[in-house]
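Appendix B, example 12.
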Amino acid sequence: MNKGQKSKAYSTNLIPTNTRDGADNFQTTEYCNFDFNGIVKLDGKYYAFNQDGMYELGGCVDDNCEISWNFKTHIDTFGRNNVKTPRYAYVTGRYSAETQVVLQIGEDDYAQYNYHTVDLNAAGVGRVVFGRGNKATYYAIGMSGTGPAQIDTIKLDIDVLSREIK
């Protein structure tokens, strides 16, 4: 890859983890500007390699800069085809107070809003209060931040409106 050229790489976990409903879950991770040809996990540590050698991946800084991270779920109806409005999200895990929660409304990427968690306590439970005008059938939710983070759960409190789209 040429210097300054942007790249994307993907890794997929081929060993499924079972979800609570018994379905198999295969995680995929996207790496932006990932200057490596491959990645392996050995004895609980991750190693990446390129033409210059092999490197252990670890820590929360890269070249003395905090590593930024983000993720977003696929769009979903959350089991109901009704128009709905999300009221709150409860996020558990370990993350900084500067972490943002991203709400995508509808199927178009342009309708998304960033929120900060409020009431983040020492146990790592934060609450996000969404705006009241967010009405749609489909939503996606994600988070972004810098530094170490471990997201355990995201639970949405959603008001389902009476109109169902068939």
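The chain has a mean pLDDT of 79. Residues 72 and 95 are 16 Å apart (CA to CA).
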